[in-house]
From TrEMBL:
Ranges for domain Transposase IS701-like DDE: 15-287
Disordered, as annotated region: 233-259
Protein name: IS4 family transposase
PANTHER family: TRANSPOSASE (PTHR33627)
Pfam families per record: DDE_5 (PF13546)
Record's compositionally biased regions (Low complexity): 244-259
NCBIfam families in the cross-refs: transpos_IS701
Length: 414
């Protein structure tokens, strides 16, 4: 720690430079050192013991001290825009298993950390990513409908939810919002902070939401997002036709496609395995499949399609917008295993399309590092503000690790 302490001090000075009080800047640096020290548990008391301080100092800094975690995130995003220089913005969410029911946002939901439904919180995050590095730059705690008193069935239930919210000091303006809406909120925030406009990558939990994809398009952002095999599509060369009219009733005005849409699975099956090409999307020297630096190669098909959904805006002639359908069809598999929709340029090389679609793997690296090494999911407080401050500080600690890995002769943290 003595060798890396100057790096921590310099980074903390940049991130906490907006704090009005010197003692707050000192406590922020102390908290970062606690997250970065060896030790499995990164909750307040174990960190305090390793640091040789009263853990209540750390508790007070995170839960009641008057500093702005949003400003820290803004500074972190500015740093990531320059240091990482992202190729994409990756969106995802991660679960925080909980034993009790008092933590803000906790409910029975699917939790990736458990591999099943369970009692947990869910945090949605946006990451600036490249093939070589990444940084978690923004967070939102997902609030289920059961934590929104405006969605309660009756007055008694609403009063109970209101009491839960008050105990966690959840701001009144914070309400249930779908995860994809939280992601769009954060992307707007990051763009306002000066994050460069980059393609967005996400898994099918976000890609299957037509409104999420359209929200990115409305913001002038391209994307390469995973979708389900059942996604409805028209081939790109299919054109709408004028509506037919029987002569009675009001004449229809909307053009329609002559054939019903087909699924992504059916469209790729019709194209056939032979339509695909083998692509290496990541080079590495290690052969282990579990190693993120391993060479990754598979067969991919790329087809021009028009997603079919009544909520997608149409052109003046009634045609739906065109985009890429990308499918991965590994050797030995009877059908494709993964599908993506992408609004990247029509003339993009297949290799570049695959590389970007696959770039979401960096977010899994971030979650692993943040949880296993930096205590992202170790916060035991029960306040809305405390959770957001803790995950912000864990993200700053991860950024320090990233900087150390790229600093010559500095000890790396794996």
């Amino acid at each position: 720690m003595a060798l890396v302490r100057p790096v921590i001090e310099d980074f903390a000075a940049d991130m906490f430079g907006g704090f009005a009080r010197r003692d707050q800047r000192g406590k922020g640096e102390l908290y970062l050192r606690g997250l970065l020290l060896d030790g499995k548990r990164k909750s307040m008391q174990p960190m305090g013991e390793r640091l040789g301080v009263d853990h209540q100092q750390l508790q007070q800094f995170v839960t009641t001290s008057t500093w702005d975690h949003v400003e820290v995130r803004r500074r972190l995003a500015v740093w990531a825009a320059g240091f990482v220089d992202p190729d994409a913005l990756a969106v995802d969410d991660t679960g925080f298993p909980k034993d009790g029911t008092s933590s803000p946002g906790v409910a029975r939901m699917y939790c990736g950390a458990l591999g099943k439904r369970g009692n947990c919180q869910v945090g949605v995050s946006v990451h600036a990513v490249t093939d070589w590095t990444s940084a978690a730059v923004d967070w939102r705690l997902f609030l289920p409908e059961s934590w929104d008193d405006r969605k309660a069935d009756d007055e008694r239930a609403a009063a109970e939810v209101a009491r839960k919210r008050a105990r966690c000091a959840i701001p009144d303006e914070v309400r249930h919002r779908e995860k994809w809406r939280l992601a769009l909120d954060m992307i707007d925030e990051l763009l306002d902070w000066g994050m460069p406009r980059r393609p967005v990558v996400a898994d099918s939990a976000y890609g299957d939401a037509t409104a999420f994809r359209q929200g990115l398009t409305d913001r002038g952002l391209t994307y390469a997002v995973a979708v389900s095999a059942s996604t409805s599509l028209h081939p790109a060369d299919t054109a709408p036709v004028p509506p037919t009219w029987s002569g009675t009733g009001r004449p229809p005005t909307r053009t329609t496609y002559p054939d019903r849409p087909v699924t992504a699975k059916a469209l790729t099956a019709e194209a056939g395995r032979s339509a695909g090409r083998f692509v290496v999307w990541r080079h590495g020297s290690h052969k282990s499949a579990g190693n993120p630096t391993a060479t990754m190669r598979s067969r991919f098909l790329a087809l021009r399609v028009r997603p079919a959904n009544r909520n997608i805006p149409r052109a003046a002639d009634g045609s739906l917008p065109e985009c890429w359908l990308l499918a991965e069809w590994p050797t030995g598999e009877p059908e494709p295993t993964d599908y993506w929709l992408s609004t990247l340029p029509a003339d993009i090389r297949l290799r570049d399309l695959v590389k970007l679609a696959k770039m979401r793997w960096r977010i899994e690296h971030d979650y692993r590092e943040l949880k296993d090494g930096l205590g992202l999911d170790h916060f035991e407080g029960r306040s809305w503000l405390g959770w957001h401050r803790h995950v912000t500080l864990a993200s700053v600690a991860q950024a320090i690790c990233t900087k150390l890995r790229r600093t010559p002769k500095a000890p790396a943290r794996d």
